[in-house]
Amino acid sequence: MSEFLKLEIVDFPEAKFVGKMVKCSMEPGEKPIKKLWDQCSADGTFGILEGMADYVINPDYADWMGEYDEKTTEFVCLVGMIMKPGCPVPGGFASRDIPATKMAVGYVRGSEPDGGIYEDAGDLTLKAMADQGYEYDDSKGYMLEIYNKERFAVPVERGDALVVLDNYMPIKSK
């Protein structure tokens, strides 16, 4: 079980998420997001994005997940980085515009890769939001997971048992 550390409410700036894309299903089975992360690590995706330094808002790698289809239980996942609005999109990449919005940021500690942190982060953040009078703004239709270098990437590289995942969700007051 993962541990919820804290919730912050932030004004998230207008941005563009740029990365590689895969369609996923909520059904159990294959893990296309893990395969996409492995592909992006191996094929130079992150190097291309890091090379666009003038456009980078946040240098941490991230997922953008949204466009959920209730009929098929499929959603879109992009693996990449958060960039400035209007940045160019390299060939073979996809993007999603993110309007400026108020977001809840849940910081969740757990084990990676199979310790449930990815499954727990959303539920724990939703509960903390509700406790503070907020709910997920489903009109926005997406969420972000940001893999902060110091809280996530460095601990993974060191082989630490626990990491912290930053879970961003657009919010509205209840």
Explain briefly what this protein structure is.
This protein is of the alpha+beta class and 174 residues long. It is built from four helices and nine strands; from the N terminus they run ββααββββαββαβ. The protein has a single domain (3-173), classed as Multidrug-efflux Transporter 1 Regulator Bmrr, Chain A (Alpha-Beta Barrel).
Account of the protein in words:
With 174 residues, this protein is α+β, with helices and mostly antiparallel strands. It has one domain: Regulatory factor, effector binding domain (Multidrug-efflux Transporter 1 Regulator Bmrr, Chain A, Alpha-Beta Barrel), CATH 3.20.80.10. Helices cover 24% and strands 46% of the residues. It has helices spanning 32-42, 45-50, 117-131, 149-158, and strands at residues 3-12, 15-25, 56-69, 74-83, 94-98, 101-110, 134-136, 142-147, 163-173. Strands 1, 2, 3, 4, 5, 6, 7, 8 and 9 form a nine-stranded antiparallel β-sheet that branches. The longest helix has 15 residues, at 117-131. The chain starts with a strand and ends with a strand.
β-strand number:
9
Task: Please indicate the percent range of residues in DSSP E strands (runs of 2 or more).
Answer: over 45%
The CATH topology assignment is Multidrug-efflux Transporter 1 Regulator Bmrr, Chain A
3D shape: globular
Radius of gyration, taken over Cα atoms and rounded to an integer in Å: 16 Å
> What is the level 1 CATH name?
Alpha Beta
Number of domains: 1
Please state the second-level CATH architecture. Alpha-Beta Barrel
- State the oligomer: single chain
Low-confidence stretches: none
In sequence order, what are the helices and strands, one letter per element? EEHHEEEEHEEHE
Assign a percent range to the helix content: 10-25%
Number of distinct helices: 4
Distance between the termini: 28 Å
Q: Round the mean pLDDT to the nearest integer and report it.
A: 94
Derived from helix and strand composition plus strand pairing, the structural class reads: alpha+beta
CATH superfamily: Regulatory factor, effector binding domain
Largest sheet: 9 strands, antiparallel
